[in-house]
């Protein structure tokens, strides 16, 4: 690329997309998010900046936006997630997508050359796929050809966090059918069978499917993110947690307890049927991967880490440093003055840093090079 590409980040949160794109040579021109909590955590890491707009995106207008190469949006997933209300794209917080679409449309000939949208995998099934079709068709109507990727953060970090990525390029020509077929036939985990099925079932959409390599093989395990300086709970609190477990999970811990090495797992408390009644149950995961970080809306959403070995069983809440590492943001500055729940809220709503960097490397940057090689380029590079 001739010069550093630029981007705006809508629903920017604490800035993990910015971290990812800046590692790939992008330059941030604008961020917007109306959460005072997220803005505060963002400021602690990046410092005070006039790039960060703390208004609700509903009040942002085209004149407020700079010219950029890429517009990224991780609009709220509350009404799309299978754990949420499932009201869909037209209701509640997830309807914020339409403010993003309004802004892109209002930019007219200043529209960015590229768009990247990230959201939960529940978007794929929301209202039987109708919400996803509406989103993609809206991008088509704005002049963008679209792709659809499904990427689990577990390919990069020891956290199970499946997400949909929708990269799009300003392109009014239809992609050749052979090029589409070639991209879909490549053996990459970045397009699940459900994603491929959705693409094949909607030939009426304007697609721009790029050939992608396999996702990387993760090098980290859960033990690699554990903070050795964080104190563990006392025996009483740990025993209380163990008493909430299924017998099979407790048996795994007891076996690991007898080994001369540490074994790690994570726990979420959920309501489950046990002994004929619904009870709070501590569910243990032991595959070296943490469960998906979530925004805490009550104690049940906070993830617990356990270790067993050398005759001991220990447990405690996952701390902010460990949560940052699970998001691939190891260098994110953590303030001792901020409550743990505030950081968990910010991380739970954030995007996995290396996943975004991978999409940039294998989709966004090649698309930019293609745009630069066209005789008449639509590339915005301000």
Number of strands: 12
Distance between the termini: 13 Å
Low-confidence stretches: none
> Compute the gyration radius: what is it?
22 Å
H/E element order = EHEHEEHEHEEEHHHHEEEEHHH
The total count of helices amounts to 11
CATH superfamily of the largest domain: Vaccinia Virus protein VP39
Structural class: alpha/beta
User: What integer is the average pLDDT?
Assistant: 92
Shape: globular
- According to CATH, what is the topology of the largest domain? Rossmann fold
Q: How many domains make up the 3D coordinates?
A: 2
What would CATH call the architecture of the largest domain? 3-Layer(aba) Sandwich
Helix content: 25-40%
Work out the strand percent. 15-25%
What is the level 1 CATH name of the largest domain? Alpha Beta
Written overview of the protein:
The longest helix is centred in the C-terminal third of the chain and has 21 residues. The chain is 30% helix and 19% strand. Helix 1 packs across helix 11. The model has no long low-confidence stretch (mean pLDDT 92). It folds into two domains: 239 residues, Rossmann fold, CATH 3.40.50; 88 residues, no CATH class. Strands 1, 2, 3, 4, 5, 6, 7 and 8 form an eight-stranded mixed beta sheet that branches. The relative contact order is 0.15.
């Amino acid at each position: 690329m001739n010069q550093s590409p630029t981007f705006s980040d809508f629903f920017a949160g604490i800035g993990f997309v910015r971290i990812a794109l800046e590692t790939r040579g992008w330059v941030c021109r604008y961020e917007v998010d109306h959460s005072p909590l997220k803005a505060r955590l963002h400021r602690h890491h990046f410092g005070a900046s006039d790039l960060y707009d703390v208004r609700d995106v509903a009040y942002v207008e085209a004149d407020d936006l700079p010219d950029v190469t890429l517009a990224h949006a991780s609009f709220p997933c509350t009404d799309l997630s299978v754990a949420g209300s499932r009201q869909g794209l037209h209701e509640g917080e997830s309807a914020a997508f339409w403010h993003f679409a309004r802004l892109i449309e209002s930019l007219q000939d200043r529209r960015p050359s590229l768009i990247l949208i990230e959201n939960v995998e529940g978007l794929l099934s929301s209202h039987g796929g109708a919400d996803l079709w509406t989103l993609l068709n809206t991008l088509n109507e704005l002049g963008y050809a679209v792709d659809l990727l499904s990427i689990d953060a577990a390919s990069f970090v020891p956290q199970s966090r499946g997400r949909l990525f929708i990269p799009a390029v300003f392109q009014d020509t239809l992609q050749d059918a052979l090029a589409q077929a070639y991209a879909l036939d490549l053996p990459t985990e970045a397009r699940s069978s459900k994603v491929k099925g959705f693409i094949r079932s909607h030939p009426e959409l304007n697609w721009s499917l790029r050939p992608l390599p396999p996702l990387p093989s993760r090098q980290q395990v859960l033990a690699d993110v554990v903070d050795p300086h964080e104190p563990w709970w006392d025996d009483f609190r740990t025993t209380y947690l163990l008493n909430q477990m299924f017998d099979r999970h407790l048996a795994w811990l007891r076996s690991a307890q007898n080994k001369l090495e540490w074994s790690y797992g994570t726990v979420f408390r959920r309501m489950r049927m046990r002994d004929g009644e619904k009870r709070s149950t501590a569910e243990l995961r032991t595959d070296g991967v943490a469960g998906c970080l979530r925004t805490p809306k009550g104690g049940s959403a906070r993830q617990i880490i356990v270790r067993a070995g050398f005759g001991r069983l220990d447990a405690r809440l996952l701390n902010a440093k460990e949560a940052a590492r699970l998001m691939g943001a190891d260098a994110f500055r953590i303030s001792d003055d901020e409550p743990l729940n505030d950081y968990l809220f910010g991380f739970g709503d954030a995007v996995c840093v290396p996943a975004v960097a991978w999409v940039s490397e294998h989709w966004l940057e090649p698309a930019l090079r293609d745009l630069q090689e066209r005789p008449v380029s639509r590339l915005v590079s301000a």
